[in-house]
Amino acid sequence: MSETLYLYTHVSLANLEKLVKSHQDSFDEELNDLFSEEELQDFERQVDGIAAVYVQPVISELTFDDFSAKAEEAAAMRSFFDACKSSIVLENLPYLQSNPFQVSYLVRLLHRLDEALVDTGGVNELVFKAQYLSALEKYKKMEDLISLAYVKKEAVKPKKPLDPIDFLVQDVFKEYDRILDQGKLYEVTQLLEAQSEKQQMLFRALGEDRSDAAALLRNSGLIPKDFDDNLERMKFFLRKLV
Which of helix, strand or coil describes residue 3? Predict the structure, then answer.
């Protein structure tokens, strides 16, 4: 279920509109600096899922008593809210745990505000900016996705398999390439969080040197026995993701 997030500020409406516009331009520029076109295609669903943003005056009928707040902070929050001149509304906010781009967007936007009261809706209590930023720390941000750099299949021509393990390695790469082609790289990394650390180490290595089994073993950081055991598991794990 989508949510709506409200940020209440002391910034004038005109200045807040300029601030949000500047933030949006800066965020778009940063996206293009951090990720290639191919990478952005992989993450297209998450980028397109970022909440719509609107700047508006504080609704005249709205009062501090319409909100919930911790008793020890209520006086300070009431004083701050009574002086608010404008608000930012983020509609259809996606689940933050599944959209690192939205998390980064929020973090950067909040850092542009000297202070803000944050209303996450429902029965949730109002919080000041610092507390909400602290809550965002538990989520992945778009910077965490940089290590999942897009791998072009044509970049390195794999050697012809010479023994059974080389054939198995090529089967794993084939499934990995299929995941890339379908734009499911991010989804797979999320599913891998429930797998063993050794499976995660092996998967990360798939995005590096693709020349042969020896290179994959070296980059995975696994010992040979763990490498052999997890190759077969990785093959069938990826194959199930149709």
Answer: strand
